[in-house]
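Notes from the 1:1 (GR / supervisor)

We went over the backlog. Supervisor wanted to see one worked example end to end before approving the batch request, so GR pasted a single chain during the call. The sequence is below; no edits were made to it. Supervisor asked that the structure be written out right there so they could see what the output format looks like.
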Amino acid sequence: MSIISKIGNWLAGIFSKTRPGLAQFIHEHEAQAVTILETTALGFVGKPMNEWRNVAFADMSSAINSAKQHPDTWISILVDLAHDVIKAQGA
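Structure output shown during the call:
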């Protein structure tokens, strides 16, 4: 099982009882979120995430939330999750 799946399953377990919609959202979009953030991060090599988080959020939102079906906080959680996954992978 990949690190992405392990983290996603862990989060899904946390949210499954209290926020089932969020748990499903994370499960459905976690791998895509990592890919999006990896691509965005290429333009900001060597810079801390706080300097480019707004760009990452915009990229993630336009790719995953183009129909504005999901709260911005859910997109923000995906940005942070993807960032943590990338760090854990040593990228």
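Supervisor's comment: Residues 20-41 form the longest helix (22 residues).
Batch request approved.
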